[in-house]
From TrEMBL:
Species in which this protein is naturally found: Streptomyces virginiae (Streptomyces cinnamonensis)
SUPFAM superfamilies, A to Z: EF-G C-terminal domain-like, Ribosomal protein S5 domain 2-like
Family: Belongs to the IMPACT family.
Domain UPF0029: 144-198
Transmembrane annotation, as ranges: none
Protein name according to UniProt: YigZ family protein
Length: 211
């Protein structure tokens, strides 16, 4: 079954750390953006190396705008009490291309399965709030080809109408690459024909996600 592409997703604004203390145990949530599964795994390995004496270094990551890759690890905590609630928190908040590692230093008080689930999931939610997230929307890339004479005015018109100019290429003609929401394409084609008196050529390209 083909996956439906997400129109938008949320990701971590920046790498960072958030700490919480629950019943004398320290929970340190390290969060980072991760463009690939390899990046996520390298981040997990780095955090584990930074906390070799911790009781547990549990992790969860989601890669892909459609959440194609999802992994979680309890790292010795009772099955399903750490990595899974961490992953569920990321999924519930529509977070993609991100990795979370929760480092626990045991403080001598047992939390029980329910307490662990709340602690691990909760600290990820708190870290997302503390570090901030950014929303990335799906856009279609399109190339507008115009002659040199019209290029400056067309660029200005594109920007003044709120279109996102991604790239400019100068050759025998000028190619202006723009990112458009899929739903705006018909209106954009009509606008472009009107504003350039039918002289511009529009070529549709692939897709990208951008803020």
């Amino acid at each position: 079954m083909e996956r439906v592409k997400a129109d938008q997703y949320v990701t971590v604004a920046r790498e960072g750390l958030h700490e919480s203390e629950i019943n004398r145990s320290r929970f340190l949530c390290s969060l980072a953006p991760a463009a690939t599964e390899q990046e996520a795994q390298e981040f997990v390995a780095r955090i584990r190396k930074e906390h070799p004496t911790a009781s547990h270094n549990c992790y969860a990551y989601v890669v892909g705008a459609d959440a194609a890759v999802q992994k979680a690890s309890d790292d010795g905590e009772p099955g399903g009490t750490a990595g899974v609630p961490m992953l569920q928190m990321l999924m519930r908040r529509d977070v993609r291309y991100a990795v979370a590692v929760v480092t626990r230093y045991y403080g001598g008080v047992k939390l029980g399965a329910g307490g662990l689930i709340r602690a691990y999931g909760g600290v990820v939610g708190e870290a997302l709030d503390a570090l901030g997230t950014v929303t990335r929307r799906r856009y279609r890339l399109a190339t507008v080809t115009v002659d040199h004479q019209r290029a400056g005015k067309t660029q200005n018109d594109l920007r003044s109408t709120g279109r996102t100019v991604v790239d400019l290429r100068y050759g025998t003609a000028v190619e202006i690459e723009v990112a458009l929401p899929e739903a705006d394409l018909p209106a954009f084609e009509a606008w472009l024909a009107d504003s350039t008196a039918g002289t511009a050529r529009l070529t549709l390209g692939g897709e990208t996600y951008a803020p």
